[in-house]
Amino acid sequence: MANKEAATTSLDSLDKEQMKTFTDFLMSYNKLSEMCFTDCVRDFTAREVKESEEKCSLNCMEKYLKMNQRISQRFQEFQMIANENALAMAQKTGKL
Length: 96
Fold this sequence. Notes:
single chain; mainly alpha; Helix Hairpins; 2 helices; about 85% helix; elongated; metal-binding; translocation; membrane
């Protein structure tokens, strides 16, 4: 019975984590959409999106995604260096 409860608890935490990940994704997507819309869409007199507005929106999105990817890469690099430094310090002090 304890195994079943542990499995249920594990699935619940997984579901919560997936929900948080999805919520974070939607927040980022909405932020990006709002930011690019505000920067690029200027004319509300026509039913169609102008070519210049579409290009601006695509460039905005691409730039944001590239920036986000670069920040993630730098964060990972920083984390690796921090982990290596912590390991070296632990080895130096004999705590490993």
